[in-house]
Design brief:
This is ABC transporter substrate-binding protein. Its main location: other. With about 300 residues, this protein is α/β, with parallel strands linked by helices. A six-stranded parallel β-sheet has the order 2-1-3-4-5-11, sandwiched between helices. It has a six-stranded mixed β-sheet with strand order 7-6-8-9-10-12, sandwiched between helices. Helix 2 links the parallel strand 1 and strand 2. The longest helix has 17 residues. The structure holds alpha-L-arabinofuranose. The site of alpha-L-arabinofuranose has 13 residues, from helix 2 and strand 9.
Length: about 300
């Protein structure tokens, strides 16, 4: 949709540097740190003035930050919504102030999609499917049952909802796959470890597979598995998502079987879109990041090429 059509009446001056208000989720993972770095450096390279706010994984902090950006009359607001729901009111306030909003990384489930201009980020459902397809292939010829424990991301967040959905969609084709425990680890190493300890206590050697919605939780869980006297990636097959350097290190050490890529390097694309919006160009409603999958067998070869 073109900005002129969406937000008639708001003139963006060509001579002053653009001001972007960005509300980040927090600093919960290695992925998030790389995402923040990408946004900060891309803003600098693009000559865009960045007002950056860290919400510490709280929606109320993001809403406050967005309201502050509206009061400061920034040119564009971008944010990575911690959870999917509950954004309509504040997005309507931005629209009334004629400030375009760009979603990065995570989606909102607002019915009115005129409340944001575009959404740049990964297809989380497809990431879940990739994880599921890898497992189905790995377990070919294994009669089962295959007992899976799942470490979910932040409750109510788009990646937690979609990665669960995509994975379940694939494994549902074969009843030998059973998710025997599923709980949130909030995308952090500490919580991943804590919840895995509880899974191990309850299920012990029954656990065949761990599916973690991000690498950080898998890395925390690996510690718990080792402390329980088991061998990660051998006694328990481990699948996670992101493809951060920490995951590659774990794969090279033989402790993680596979990581599905989710790129945090959204900064340059975000700045380019903001400039297009400023220029009144029509931008796509959805921009999907292209991503791969890295099993442990290719980790050592791929590692030197990794940028995050
Ligand atoms: O929204 C992307 C997810 O958020 C990443 O997979 C996770 O590591 C981060 O915290």
């Amino acid at each position: 949709a073109s900005l002129a059509a969406l937000l008639p009446g708001r003139a963006l001056s060509a001579d002053k540097p653009l001001v972007l208000g960005f509300s980040q989720v927090g600093a919960e993972s290695e992925w998030r740190t790389a995402n923040t770095e990408s946004i900060k450096s891309a803003a600098k390279d693009a000559g865009i003035t960045l007002k950056f706010s860290d919400a510490q994984q709280k929606q109320e902090n993001q809403i406050k930050a967005i309201r502050a950006f509206i009061a400061q009359k920034v040119d564009v607001i971008a944010f990575s919504p911690v959870v999917e729901s509950g954004w309509e009111t504040v997005l309507r306030e931005a629209k009334a102030a004629k400030i375009p909003v760009v979603l990065t990384d995570r989606a909102v489930n607002a019915k009115d999609d005129s409340l944001y201009v575009t959404f740049i980020g990964s297809d989380f459902t497809e990431e879940g499917r990739k994880a599921g397809r890898w497992l189905v292939d790995k377990m070919k010829g294994n009669a089962g049952p295959i007992n899976i424990v799942e470490l979910q991301g932040t409750v109510g967040s788009a990646p937690a909802i979609d990665r669960k959905k995509g994975f379940e969609e694939i494994i549902a084709a074969d009843p030998k796959f059973k998710i025997i425990r599923s709980q949130t680890g909030d995308f952090t190493r500490a919580k991943g470890k804590e919840v895995m300890e509880a899974f191990l206590k309850a299920e012990g050697k029954k656990i065949n597979v761990l599916y973690a919605h991000n690498d950080d939780m898998a890395i925390g869980a690996i510690q718990a598995i080792e402390e329980a006297g088991m061998k990660p990636a051998q006694d328990i097959t481990i699948i996670s998502i992101d493809g951060v350097k920490g995951a590659f290190e774990a794969m090279i050490a033989g402790k993680l079987n596979v990581s599905v890529e989710c790129s945090p390097l959204l900064g340059p694309q975000l700045m380019a879109i903001i400039k297009d919006i400023k220029a009144g160009k029509s931008v796509p409603k959805r921009i999907v990041t292209e991503e791969g999958i890295f099993p442990m067998e290719v980790a050592a070869k791929e590692f030197p090429k990794r940028k995050y």
